Amino acid sequence: LVDLVIFCVHHHAFRIKYYLMRHDQIARIVGGLVARRERWVACAAIRFVRACVGLKDDFYLAHVAKAGV
């Protein structure tokens, strides 16, 4: 599921950007998955953060910083 969100971040930048902001999904995805015992789930959350930061979009950088990720 996280891979699908990563795909949307890369290919549907405008729509997914405001969806993630409006529903506070960045904090939910990262906060809920990093704390899991399964290592592959925590790695999926890290891949999501890397995808958001890798775009070098000021919106994602500000939202990730605000979420405390």
Description:
The chain has 69 residues and is mainly alpha-helical. The chain contains five helices and no strands. The longest helix is centred in the C-terminal third of the chain and has 16 residues, at 39-54. The protein is globular and about 35 Å long. The chain starts with a helix and ends with a helix.
Radius of gyration: 11 Å
Determine the mean pLDDT. Answer: 83
**Count of helical regions:** 5
Q: What's the total count of β strands?
A: 0
Oligomer: single chain
> What is the overall shape?
globular
Strand content: under 5%
- Structural class, by secondary structure, is mainly alpha
The major sheet is characterized as: none
Please write the string of helix (H) and strand (E) elements.
HHHHH
Helix content: over 70%
Question: How are the secondary structure elements laid out?
Answer:
Blueprint: H1 2-11, H2 13-22, H3 25-34, H4 39-54, H5 58-67
Helix pairs in contact: 1-4, 3-4
In short:
The chain is mostly helical and 69 residues long. It is built from 5 helices and no strands. The chain is 81% helix and 0% strand.
